[in-house]
Design goal:
Among the domains are: 62 residues, no CATH class; 31 residues. The relative contact order is 0.08. The chain is built from six helices and no strands.
Length: 134
Amino acid sequence: MKTFPRKLRFTTTLVVVLCMSALNISPALAGLAPSQTSGTTTIASARDADLLVAQRVLENKVVAQKLLDYGVAAADARLKLAGMSDRDLHTLASASRGLPSGGDGTVGALIGVCVLVILVIVILRLTNHQVVVR
């Protein structure tokens, strides 16, 4: 194996030493950003947070369809949420934390199934099993 010529080694070493020393000399200018309230923040209490969670659940297509099946309009459900007690609202928000907010999640489920099928095929191929798709 050939080595670098002496002049190239010296130049490379000099460049590396200069770069490393420049990094050590430069001052650090990092710091925390000051906090400010944005104009869109409306959560002032735990009740407001629970109300927001419950309203996002109402945006879910499946939940909205079930409410329509029971004869409850989305506007009526929002009015009922506003009139609920803090304890009932917190119970509802806690129960609905696992649900997706908005949308129906169909795309995510399809992607998950496709990834699972591909993973099974890859594992079968790695273990020298034959995969036949008809």
